[in-house]
Amino acid sequence: MQVKTGTTRGSLASWAWRPLLGIFVFALASVPLLAQQTEVGWPRTIQSDGQLIQVYQPQVDKWESGKLEARAAVVVTRKELGQPIYGVVWLSARTTVDQEKRLVTLYDMEVTKASFPAASAEESKYVASATTALAQWTFTMAIDRLLADLAITQTEAKAKGVPLGAKPPKIFVRTNPAVLILIDGEPVLRKVEGTNLMRVINSPALIVLEPGTGQYFLRGEGYWMTAASVNGPWTKAAHPPDVLASVLQGEEAQGAPAAAAQPAEAAPEIIVSTEPAELIQIRGEEQFSPISGTKLLYVTNTDSNLFLNLPDQRYYVLLSGRWFRSQSLDGPWEFVAGESLPADFAAIPPGHAKATVLASVPGTREAQDAIVAAQVPQTATINRKLVKFKANYDGAPQFKPIEGTDMSYAVNSPDDIILVEGRYYALHDGVWFVADNAQGPWAVCAFVPPAIYSIPPTSPLYPVTFAYVYEATPEFVYVGYLPGYFGAYIWDGAIVYGTGFWYPCWAYDFWYPCPWTWGFGWQYAYWGWGFRWRPWYPSRWYWRPWRGRPAEFPRWSQRVMYNRPVERTATAVRMEARNAYDRWTTPGVISHHPVPLRAPAPGRAPGGVVPPRAVTRPPTGGAHDIYAGPDGHVYEYQSDGWYRREGGQWQRFEPARPPEARAPEERPPEVSRPPTERAPEAAAPRVAPSPPSGITQQLERQRQARIEGARREGEFHRAAPAPSRPSGGARMGGGGGGRGGGGGGRR
Q: pTM of the prediction?
């Protein structure tokens, strides 16, 4: 029995198989909230009206625009039935992702098709109709299981991505202690009220000029450095002017922790750059160690990913997800495309100290995993009445054309504001707004003009092309963004950080920096945490940039900093993936639990059916490895090969693989035997006609995906717990909603 559904919910009432499907859907709607917040394993078992309904792990077909499409094998058993009823259902659901817990919640479920080949009309009378409970079906599963499924079963059509900048930054290599201080273009000086000092406002570092002496002062590791030029050379200031204390007090009054003075510590070399730059810090002369199975050496006394390839005697370094090489550490450095990277990089053992670079080696499993993760949206439901926005400008609004388009954007605003065909669209912390005037009033946007998604990477507004409006009702708007909104992009077969282009900033009364690619040693980390700083990064040298008011120095919070202040601490500073929607304090932005856009039926359970009870643990009786075939049949992998459910029995359709072809760990965990009869072990299995080879190959890939997903889930739970969510933090890869933050940077 196989039925395809239409797009309207009303048509469900006429389905011949509606009773069978109804109890399945309604049963899952009753899973307790606790089970919805954790991964409880597969299959999920529901008890209702004397029957058990088992749902096996969904197999993902597509996950786009915040909607997941999948199919799942279902087993319905009842005492009165002679044997279980096996079937396949095709599902479509909205998703809410919790990256910190590595969970995804599926809700607003629709069953678009169902196939129960062996179900008769007599058997289906035991199943009550409850199709109106579709809108109430909500369950949670580990995101790593879904990502593994996508990575193995989906194509790599998006692996190349949009062309990005490949020009290498200025690369400094130092074997002595050094600090890289970035200035966003030529220094812009503004007077610090109440003093005779001038501050360089377009830098996250605290740099001030004493005009009377012409000396610059830089605050760092609990002491002041001084130089006659902003470019140095810098030395420790033996007797800094007393007036600097007032600047420091104003800074620390805004919450920046004071660094204890360390008078005995030797001052590092200060490297100031007004152009894109990176620092490779080596602790003394480089020390090499071979990587087993390759002709690569890696430098052990640096936190950078620095290698020497023996065949060509070149150094290779990974910066912001891009590879560069040089004959000498002194340069010049050149970009290396993925196809030109020595093959030995893909042979680095997964457990090696430098295995993290595999995510940046095209063709590796780690790179494919990263690409798949970059296509998973963070979603939220926005209440159109409760969520408000007000645009801010440094003076009167000023708009600049977006190259290659008919659009323009506000250059003197901390928010992303775009003029499109006479209307203004603003993106703030992942939520789109629209207005007829640059000053507002603004309303939550229910439709984003397609032209916005043509903004090229050469524009500082490019990250907005990764934020979407998926669906809208008169009350709610369902929105989401991809990691590209935070600066993690798919390009050249891997994930890179930043576009690679430099953009001019706005620095007048306020400094509004544009997204930066270079200067902070971004490295990719799995578990959805995105890019992070290298442990060496000297955050104690970076303070709160200029806000325009001397008593309120702004937080360092431009997009590439994930809208969070830099912690001035000696420990590793890691900008983990943070949900941009968490920055909203209004209850109208909901991202950590689902808000169904379809209203549930009022009163008691739909159709008067008594709600079923969830069985928290699957029934015992042995492990079954069951899958939903694309042809509507249910398949099982057993020790001697693949079987298909035919006429109430399992029939083998393919010879078993040789034992040496199967790894002992290939039995996926957390699957249990459903309550079913099985032919005696001694009986020769009936052989069914083999399905098309494409189905066999797909099933095998999905079996491997299930094994891999369970492995990753286990690794995540064995890893150190994620840090707690900081107040106002944004998650997953950069920016969270504007080109700076805090009032001084674009937020």
A: 0.78
